[in-house]
Amino acid sequence: MLIPVLDPKLYFCRMLQVSLIGSGNLAHQLLVALRDLTGVDLVEVTARNTEAIDLLDNDIPLNSDFSKLRPADIYILAVSDAAISPVSEQLGDLPGMLAHTSGSVPMNALMHENRGVFYPLQTFTKGKVVDFSKIPICIEASSRTGMDTLNQLAQKLSEKVTELPSNQRRQLHLAAVMANNFTNHIFYWAERFCIENQLDFTLLHPLIEETVAKMKAVGPFDAQTGPARRGDLNTLQHQLEAMPTPELKQLYQYLSNSIQNTYGKEL
Amino acid sequence: MLIPVLDPKLYFCRMLQVSLIGSGNLAHQLLVALRDLTGVDLVEVTARNTEAIDLLDNDIPLNSDFSKLRPADIYILAVSDAAISPVSEQLGDLPGMLAHTSGSVPMNALMHENRGVFYPLQTFTKGKVVDFSKIPICIEASSRTGMDTLNQLAQKLSEKVTELPSNQRRQLHLAAVMANNFTNHIFYWAERFCIENQLDFTLLHPLIEETVAKMKAVGPFDAQTGPARRGDLNTLQHQLEAMPTPELKQLYQYLSNSIQNTYGKEL
Where do the DUF2520 domain residues begin and end (chains A, B) (predicted)? Predict the structure, then answer.
């Protein structure tokens, strides 16, 4: 009988055991991303209402009792900001580390000694599966060992993993609010303005995509165009007068003044 | 001797003769796009300072005398808004139609009887060659024949050609100012905020791209997220306090109020 010789370059790696807590949009996105990830064993999904979870025909155990969790290396608490503290209090002692997923809640909102944060910086849409590999994941942990464990998981999911303390993560979250919520609301204004003038808003889609591409390529300072940057007071006055509502006039004046102030020294 | 029989499906098409006037960024982009376009013969490029034009080793004739233009079907006047009227006055009578490329100048700023507008709705960057096929081109003409000629050229360049009268084109241009200039300035604020907090602004790039993708997929009204949309007054207050400068506080308050007003009826 021949005994096969094992390749010395092969070795056995222990699977990282991950337990997921939550049934919302992010919990679902993480479930989809983690269930088939090499080196990760999704040991359990826990939620008060287990019916809210669609396991997608996987045989991952479901649990509804927060005080009885299976052993895991990392417990990912993917619940709303307001639920982080109350839910973590119900979890009791855990054999692994507990990490929440919020951009704005401090790590110390978790009372567990072995705690951390696992914050994917992205906007998630119900029903739209995301590719985590391009999403920055910001991590924080109460110990170096905890950081290593979180880092191991984050690296498997994303190409962009960053260690950030709570205060900087909160600032990054605020910048994200500006870059997402505020710009989307301006798109809404532009759309309403188009509708009121019987114009097809989708005509602006290529422009909006190029605005972002240009901003990424040269940075927003150099990407700025328009009459406010040029200091073209004549065009500014005409455009201001053409704004149809007091709200849009105010917006136009406010943002144009800010652009003029930013570039004023250049003129 | 055999005489080849011509395929009856083949016929000879007259090339559309196009003359380009201007030496700026858009003129250069159009030169690159038009010189190799099937069915288009770029007969001449005219500019006061012909040295400003890089013909890219093509043998397109260069001209610096506005009063002596070669015959063409369409003269594209790609100059700044302020130069449209003065330059067109110098052109004299033309055998073809004259079209300017501005989003905000009325067609009637051109005194020629056979006039039109050829407005590519996009932001152009020096040195970055664009793909015109995805750029909406808005056209207008003083006659049906003129419109057909402009349409023929626009269709060769772009998949999205729209007929728009001057007043609607001006409104679309204003919507474009909002969607481009205003959002880019908000990206600038977010970047400055990151720099002040020693954060890498590029961490926000994937979020910004997803914000646009989501807005395109479901429209900006449904794409809105954040505390202002949810009416989460507690988070709004915390975020407002965290804004580091009076300018950013004012911006935050202004845009959050507007989002709250937009979604207030839903809550």
Answer: 135-258
